[in-house]
Each structure stands twice: as structure tokens, then as C-alpha cells.
Design a protein that fits this description.
Blueprint lengths: L4 H10 L6 H21 L31 H4 L6 E2 L2 E2 L7
Antiparallel strand pairs: 1-2
Helix pairs in contact: 1-2
Amino acid sequence: MSITRNDVEHVANLARLELSEQEKEQFEGQLNAILKYAEKLNQLDTDGIEPTSHVLPLANVMRDDKVKPSLPIEKVLLNAPEDEDGHFKVPAVLE
């Protein structure tokens, strides 16, 4: 499979991009190089290879959650530009 100038123009149109003739030629070459590399990868023998989600073993590095007392609401609201009934007051975002 290869990318044609027509394909580049179609994708540019969908993305609402105006490309010069030089850019169209450049992108056509770059996209074809990517596809050629992907075809090269298809030549690899992957029979018997287990699928992996990551090449390195990963471990959860997050700490365990511990229940601790929260700050008092009065102290939290000291930094609020405006508050109302114990809550942050913000401008309305819906009409």
C-alpha cells in the first residue's frame, strides 16, 4: 500500500490545511516511508511470542492510601476569592 498525492490532498482537506505543492510532495514521501517501515516490521517472525503491553516489567509505585483528617473548612476557604455556605463560589459556566 502506498500514499498518493490524492490521499495527501484528501487528508489535508479533512484537516482544513492548505498545503503547497512542495509540502504535498514532502508529506507523500514521509508517509510512504512510514508505511514502508511498517511493512518491514510485518516480515518479522512473531510466532510463539507472547503479546505484551510494555517491554519492561512495571510495578505500582504509588503509596497506599491512608485516612487522615482533612483541613478544617474555615482554613481551606481562607484562600478562596469568594465562598458561600461553606463552598467555593465560582462564576457560572452554563447558561
